[in-house]
Amino acid sequence: MTAAKARRPIGVFDSGVGGLTVVRALMDRLPxxxxxxxxxxxxxxxxxxxxxxxxxxxxxxxxxxxxxxxKALVVACNTISAVALEQVREQAGDIPVIGxxxxxxxxxxKVSQSHExxxxxxxxxxxxxxxxxxxxxLQPEARVYSQACPLFVPLVEEGWVDHPVTRLTAEExxxxxxxxxxxxxxxxxxxxxxxxxxxxxxxxxxIELVDSALTTAEATAEVLGxxxxxxxxxxxxxxRYYVTDIPLRFQTIGExxxxxxxxxxxxxxxx
Length: 271
Hints:
The chain is an alpha/beta fold and 271 residues long. The chain has helices at 2-6, 20-29, 51-67, 78-83, 85-92, 100-111, 123-128, 130-138, 152-157, 164-178, 196-202, 212-226, 250-258; strands at residues 10-14, 35-39, 72-75, 97-99, 116-121, 143-148, 184-187, 208-211, 239-243, 265-267. Strand 7 (184-187), helix 11 and strand 8 form a beta-alpha-beta unit. 45% of the residues are buried.
């Protein structure tokens, strides 16, 4: 049974397009794994919605992915990871669930020497305090400095990843974090890996940047390896993308996030 299960796809989901940075990292880290991606593009953003609504939407997406017999679920959305991860785990049963916040917090604790850790994320993720809670659970003496960076998402989606406006915005946002002498900065939103080179320049390379997409891919590889669920096949993997709406810009933004073309894209209705 394990051999057959190992050939099943990994299910990855997000409220929109941002989770494709996690898919890209998974493709690089686990090049033989089939992947199904689900983006709830009709109902994005989740950040402005109530916890009950986010949990209800997440439940519908998980049900859809379980029907496609995934072997693991990757929650590639910080908002869902912050408020609905336990519910996703209950619904998934014996299928492993990997969340971006847990993976990012673990990596931050591992690399930080001073235990002074900065977190940049959307307002909702910062207000949920999920990163700080998880970091403190792993490293009780850590000090966490969180900064909401709401303008980064529209700037990244506009393609302004190395634009003077984005640079000025980053300098302004990071002032409060940099004054605290942090040695590690968690990129706590799946859009942020696209501006990682710019952030490295703004922080003058003095701070270790924890890329939540890379850390989530690494955590997924560890979990699948530990459960003997790595795909034994060495053929070309299959990538499928499901969304609840196909905005005109989805293909352009999605391919920028992925670094490759999106071919097998299908629109589905939930609920």
